[in-house]
Amino acid sequence: MTTRQPKKRMGAKDIAAALRTRIDNGDIERQLPPTRILVTEFETSPETLRQAIGILRAEGRVTSHQGKGVFVRRVKPIEFAMHKFERGNRRDDIENGIDDWKAAILELGRIPSQDTPTVSVERAPANIAAELGVEPGSFIVARRRTRRVDGEPFQLADSWFPTEVAFDTPLMDEKDVTMPGGILANIKDGQYAQTRKVDKLRAWTLNADESDQSDQAERLGLPTGSTVPVLRHVRVGYNAAGMAVRCMVTIAPGDLNTLVYEIED
Question: HSE (CB half, 13 Å, CA atoms) of 137?
Fold first, then answer.
């Protein structure tokens, strides 16, 4: 006589995987079924189901709305051509307030927008100081922006400048500023115009335990504990004299952004 093995109960990861498959297949298009239905279907507890949905939320696949339910997060990603961005004949449209980034998004058939920039004078953290070639702790100017595509936060674009570059210029204005060829080419007789740029790219997940990364996650609308990988793109611009005049750090969620480089022989 054989003993019937009890049915193995699904854990939170198993339930998350099952729901993930349904979302990817289009079986769940807009909203997850109510909790009571899923608890019955998966023969689980409300707590285990909450953990499963928490996994999907951390991955950026769903969002929860109090009293309304859990909704599938469907945001169409972009392929952003970094080799064209801020190079050659820039696409700045001064009359319509469209800078090179917005022009690139418009070329993709999407709607670009930027939150109002914030500007501050602060002490240079060690990593930014190294890129700008200044002493850690010395004063620099930080200009932070959240860039949106179709209303959704897609990228953070935070730039740091030596004070001698930014002081008494539109870089200190907390508003969108569009100039032909970029701001640096139009201030202080063009002595800080960028003639060379160096790009560096890394990937990781944002750590909510570190204050700066927690702030970045919040600005991007990522939930606490998010496991969505992010791309950290650093572009350092140099003027004709070889001085580092800007360090721009772009933080881009990996599920929304593919950064493209076209290399010519």
Answer: 0
Query: What tokens does 201 get?
Result: 């790219």
CA pair distance 255, 242, nearest whole angstrom: 36
**In this predicted structure, what is the pLDDT of residue 72?**
87
Residues in the chain where the model's pLDDT stays below 50: none
Task: Express each pLDDT in 17-32 by its tens digit.
Answer: 999 999 888 899 889 9
Going by C-alpha positions, the residue among 203, 228, 206 that lies closest to residue 216 is 206
Calpha distance 16→26 (Å, rounded): 15
User: Which residues contact residue 29 at a Cβ distance below 8 angstroms, ignoring those fewer than 6 apart?
Assistant: 72
Q: How far apart are CA 73 and CA 57, in angstroms?
A: 9
Structure-block tokens of residue 99: 């800078």
Predicted confidence (pLDDT) per residue in 90-138, tens digit:
898 988 989 999 999 999 999 999 999 999 999 999 999 999 999 999 9
Q: Would you give the distance in Å from CA 126 to the centre of its chain?
A: 22
Backbone angles phi, psi at 221, to 5 degrees: 75, 20
